[in-house]
Amino acid sequence: MIKLGFYPGCSLTGSSSDYAESVLALAKAFDLELTEIPDWNCCGATAAHNMNKELALSLSARILALAEKQQMDEVVVPCAACYNRLSVTQYELNKDADLKKRICDIIGMPINGNLHILNVMQMIDKYITGRLEEKVTNPFTRKVACYYGCLLVRPHDILKFDRLEDPQSMDVLMEKVGAEPIDWAFKTECCGAGFSVSHTDAVAKLSGNIVKDAADRGAEAIIVACPMCQSNLDMRRAQINEYLKKKTDIPVIYITQAIGLAVGLSAKDVSLQKLFVPATFV
Amino acid sequence: MSKIGVFICHCGENISATVDVEKVAEEAAKFDGVEFATHYKYMCSDPGQTLIKNAIREKGLTGVVVGSCSPRMHEPTFRKACAEAGLNPYMCEMANLREHCSWVHEKSEETTEKAIVLIKMLVEKVKKNRSLNAIKVPITKKALVLGGGIAGIQAALDIANAGQQVILVEKDPSIGGHMSQLSETFPTLDCSQCILTPRMVEVAQHPNIKLYNYAELEKLEGFIGNFKATIRLKAKSVDYSICTGCGLCTTKCPSKKIPSEFNEGLGMRTAIYTPFPQAVPNKPVIDRENCNYYKKGVCKICQKVCPTGAIQYDLPDELITEDIGAIVIATGFNVLKTNFFPEYGYGKYPDVITGLQFERLASASGPTLGEIRRPSDGKIPQKIVFIACAGSRDQAKGIPYCSKICCMYTAKHAMLYQHKVHGGESYVFYMDIRAGGKNYEEFIRRAIEDDGVNYVRGRVARIYEKDGKYIVKGVDTLLGSKQIEIEADMVVLATAGVANAGAEELAQKMHVSYDAYHFFAEAHPKLKPVETNTAGIYLCGACQAPKDIPETVGMASGAAAKVIGLFSNDELTREPLIAVVNRCAPPVFSTCVGCFMCQTACPYNAIEREEIKSRNGEVIKTIAKVNPGLCQGCGTCVAFCRSKAIDIQGYSNEQMFAEVMAMLN
């Protein structure tokens, strides 16, 4: 039983609970025990760092401090925004000793700054991929468009994860479970992110272009690793269809859901029922 | 009995603002052995030098100490002045009161004290100086030119036409370099090969030029006027003394799918090949890595069809050595390939090409016979986008410099496209237009005004492929950063000019300096553009930095002039500040015991063995001897010698101790 820290963040606890459920289901299937950081708070996401730099750093710093307090060495952070904020915060504090001191004073806890923050792909690659091939009972033989979004691979110097313009980690993973990842043009284009509520037509346009490109190139599903992306591409499908003046039915599922299905978990196990655009192939 | 003259320079204000030069002169006059001491504002000037000369004559000085700048600056100046006044130049020494005193300290009594001590040290040294005479070494009047592009060709022809011997070494099968790959040259739109090939032939036929093609420099030893170059003649598998250049073998070779380097991968060649029809020498070589005979032991068709039996598969590499007097480095440059750009597809799109690849498309002898066609499907592009500054001027990509030629050749490419594809639409995305040469600005205006090329000031963020076309996402900054999306049939990237892959290795082989980008370093960026810091080795062309053809040719002629100047003397004068093994009367002959540790230590292989023989030819002892032509005066042997039998003239142990004792007392 491998024990890892787990930071779900707000989205996974609320509107994207299906992501959390699929992550935990997949982890369980591979004997990974994910322990939530006790008393965790919101990481601040885009709102905080837009408004107040110290607030943004403090929110994420508190989470890092709590994780260290639990003597966690690795923490799995499935939400791409949380992953980005926590990683950037740790990097900034390690770079500037004075800043670190000030932030530690604000949160009232010490920070070492040597936590290993893993996004969902890194968790899978480290602990699951090696045992994956033998456990695949239901190969995911579909054409898929892997969508990475903005926050998983940028800023590259800090996150040092995958390739900047044409990332491959999800593509390689999907290939291992029998899928056919397509080469397409919108892997890292913005989906509209937090404008989902305040500026929905921007989301309709940006996410619409993503859905159109994936569908035009023959993808049968879009695979994502970020709850915001999933929400914009899935929950806002009505607005997207209005923008595209066309009804599109390509489903958007999480990487953990896709892999979960491939290793024999049921649609219910990976919480597919919460999709707005149904995954009819299951 | 020493009669030393001390001359303290104010160096304008450089020294006198911090050091009390008058006091230094006063104190120096009191030193034992000093006959005359004075100070002056600019000792290196004409009146300053006259001051020294007059003092030498009138006071009968036996030695001179000049307290001024660094000897690296004016030692030759003052030594020459002394020589003119009849004093052996090596009896003149300089005390560095500027770089070692006034420029590194604040004005204070201690600073002046230090200056006085420095003068004292040199006075004590000069008392132990001996007259020395410059060493003359012969010069081998043969030049080595590395690289057979336009730079090397020009340099070789200039030196050869001056009546000197030249060896031209080119690593590719043919000379010509990148200029032979170009279709037309700016600003005249001259056909590149038409102006180049006559010079290539001239090189091949010139009685003073020996051309080694398919060859590389293996090793370099020696020094200016006396180099020894080892050149590797790579195995061609074809005997050039028998081969007539008929070309039958290349038509019959069954391996026809090897990407052609000359066509930048856009066309194919055979395993036995000449790179292009106008190659000089026009005889083929076999690419052993891709030939079926060397890979699998089969085929041998070329040998069967060869009418003269020139194909010999087991001809090995050959190593030859040549004595050389001067070297000109003209090894050229390269351009980045499209796989360098993640945002433009990591090189996976066949119709996103480099400027050099476009030259091959536009070239009448290229893979498409001069028609602009897409490499993917052969169709003629109706909409083409040119991206300037692809990689250059980009800190994030590690290439902060400007590649100089791209603004001009991009305009040229756009013009050629418009000339060949009537009704075609071309776009150039640029940051700035750099067209500083003669007729260059007018050339750009022609592209915009006469040929209707659309110039857009902005960068391209991304290129991706959709339904066989390329979506170019850029920005027009002159329209308030308006986003532009163009559906292009072909994209040409003006990729950055970079150093050749083997540049670092070659520079290290030759002991020539190079910079962080592996471009070779000139001796002075303003005043010595064609020399390196290594005496006898000169530079020209793009191996020093990206540049266009007129500059390259100018530099090549400049380097040639340096070589011709060097060869215009029969002998080279060397400084006598070298090591010498002591000799004394028999039966000792020398305190050297013949351990030869100095020989092991010497980095320049300058120590030889000398047999001391008796009258009937018996060897009495073998001792060390310094070759005055090779010794660089580094002093390593002096440090190693257990018997203190070897010493440096001009920097002897005695002189050094005298300086130290003067400083300590």
Question: TL;DR?
Answer:
Chain A is of the alpha/beta class and 282 residues long.
**Topology order of chain A in helix (H) and strand (E) letters:** EHHEHHEHHEHHEHHEHHEHHEH
Query: Major beta sheet of chain A, specifics?
Result: 4 strands, parallel
Major sheet attributes of chain B: 5 strands, parallel
* Rg of chain B (CA only): 32 Å
Count of DSSP H/I helices of chain B: 18
CATH level-1 class of the largest domain in chain A: Alpha Beta
Distance between the termini of chain A: 30 Å
State the domain count of chain B: 5
Strand line-up across the major sheet of chain B: 10-7-6-18-29
Assembly type: heterodimer
- CATH-level-4 superfamily name of the largest domain in chain B: FAD/NAD(P)-binding domain
Query: Please, what is the average pLDDT of chain A?
Result: 94
Q: Judging by the overall fold, what is the CATH architecture of the largest domain in chain A?
A: 3-Layer(aba) Sandwich
By helix and strand content of chain A, what is the structural category?
alpha/beta
Which word captures the global form of chain B? Answer: globular
The helical percent of chain B reads 25-40%
Number of strands of chain B: 34
What does this 3D model show about the protein?
The complex is a heterodimer of chains A (282) and B (665). Chain A is α/β, with parallel strands linked by helices and 282 residues long. Chain A has two domains: 2-120, Glutathione S-transferase Yfyf (Class Pi), Chain A, domain 2 (Up-down Bundle), CATH 1.20.1050; 134-274, 3-Layer(aba) Sandwich (Rossmann fold), CATH 3.40.50. Chain A is built from 15 helices and eight strands. In chain A, helix 3 packs across helix 4 and helix 12 packs across helix 14 (237-244). The longest helix of chain A is centred in the N-terminal third of the chain and has 17 residues, at 53-69. The model of chain A has no long low-confidence stretch (mean pLDDT 94). Chain B is α/β, with parallel strands linked by helices. Chain B has five domains: 4-130, Rossmann fold, CATH 3.40.50; 139-234 and 317-327 and 509-569, FAD/NAD(P)-binding domain; 236-315, Alpha-Beta Plaits (2-Layer Sandwich), CATH 3.30.70; 333-498, FAD/NAD(P)-binding domain; 579-649, Alpha-Beta Plaits (2-Layer Sandwich). Chain B is built from 18 helices and 34 strands. Chain B has a five-stranded parallel β-sheet. Chain B has a five-stranded parallel β-sheet with strand order 20-27-21-22-23. In chain B, strands 2-1-3-4 form a four-stranded parallel β-sheet, with helices on both faces. In chain B, helix 5 (109-127) runs antiparallel to helix 18 and helix 11 (355-362) runs parallel beside helix 12 (406-420). The radius of gyration of chain B is 32 Å and the shape is globular. The mean pLDDT of chain B is 95. At the A-B interface, loops of A face strand 24 of B.
